[in-house]
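Progress note, sequence design subtask.
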């Protein structure tokens, strides 16, 4: 009998959460699922749990209370003995950490992955986000060089959450920059021209207001933060969401003019990006999203359609910023449910 580690709590949270939907849909699955081995493991888990001291930080990080709430849910299909164990576990947590309010569990709750982020539509059905910046942060904070204290492998559900935390300054432009320099780039689609090494890659950009500014990083010898989006066509892309992969220097910059059928032209900018040494490895970053983050992503996909609001209905608090997604992400989603008093215009 020994106290449970945070990793054990993470694992059991996911194990219990995986069992809940099956039991809810098919109550007869109890006999098939609850083998002697599983019952022995569950009993040992609750025994070890009784010897585990909890803090608010531990509960907040592991979200183990959400698993107990699912187990104790009326009609959830769990055997009565385990429902009682889950109720006693919740009582233990509430007693030791002073209540479970404010410990999260939901993506939009306090300290949730999307706290302060509201997806919106305007009257023309344009997609965007209203983002409440973290306390003490502004979008201008991202217009600085360096890692800004973010570790390699840091992961977000989307660019709105990344902007909220201050690693990028915009969700409208793939480049966070100004006339002087670029400071962060979110790469997606065909932006990355894969090379044979993790230490270097070719970046190709057709869009981005600050493409020329990124070229200035070459002469200024200033690195840029690289974030990879899950829509990136690359073996290095995250399976979901957006991930910070570290600092890269610009070693070459070129541009090529391409004529358009309407008589106009577009410039293709290419850059050779070289990974800065003495930082977390890319191999370390590739572990993200991890299992817990994938669970959050799956939850987001299920819940997001019910969380959208009309822009005019959102309470714009001090420090909130609005970002409209770029044209390539303005796909039709006419089946979406929009919360709030307004109705979709005809």
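Output:
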């Amino acid at each position: 009998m020994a106290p449970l580690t945070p990793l054990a709590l993470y694992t059991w949270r996911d194990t219990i959460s995986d069992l809940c939907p099956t039991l809810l849909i098919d109550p007869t699955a109890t006999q098939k699922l609850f083998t002697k081995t599983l019952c022995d493991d569950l009993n040992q888990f609750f025994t070890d749990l009784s010897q585990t001291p909890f803090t608010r930080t531990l509960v907040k990080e592991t979200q183990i209370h959400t698993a107990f709430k699912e187990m104790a849910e009326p009609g959830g299909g769990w055997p009565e003995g385990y429902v009682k164990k889950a109720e006693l576990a919740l009582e233990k947590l509430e007693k030791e950490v002073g209540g479970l309010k404010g410990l999260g569990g939901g993506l939009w709750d306090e300290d949730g992955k999307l706290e302060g982020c509201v997806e919106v539509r305007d009257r023309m059905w344009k997609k965007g986000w209203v983002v409440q910046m973290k306390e003490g942060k502004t979008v201008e904070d991202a217009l600085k060089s360096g890692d800004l204290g973010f570790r390699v492998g840091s992961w977000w559900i989307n660019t709105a959450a990344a902007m909220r935390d201050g690693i990028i300054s915009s969700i409208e432009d793939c480049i966070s920059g100004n006339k002087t320099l670029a400071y962060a780039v979110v790469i997606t689609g065909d932006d990355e021209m894969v090379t044979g090494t993790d230490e270097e890659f070719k970046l190709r950009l057709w869009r981005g207001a600050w493409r020329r500014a990124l070229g200035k990083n070459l002469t200024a010898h200033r690195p840029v933060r690289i974030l990879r989006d899950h829509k990136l066509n690359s073996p290095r892309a995250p399976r979901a969401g957006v991930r910070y992969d570290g600092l890269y220097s610009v070693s070459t910059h070129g541009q090529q003019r391409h004529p358009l059928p309407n008589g106009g032209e577009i410039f293709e900018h290419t850059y050779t990006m070289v990974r800065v040494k003495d930082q977390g490895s890319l191999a370390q970053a590739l572990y993200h999203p991890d299992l817990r983050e994938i669970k959050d992503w799956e939850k987001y996909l299920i819940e997001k359609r019910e969380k959208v609001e009309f822009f005019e209905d959102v309470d714009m608090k001090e420090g909130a910023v609005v970002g409209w997604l770029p044209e390539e992400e303005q796909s039709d989603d006419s089946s979406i449910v929009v919360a709030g008093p307004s109705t979709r215009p005809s």
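Confidence is low (pLDDT under 50) at residues 332-346. Work on this subtask will continue into the next period as scheduled.
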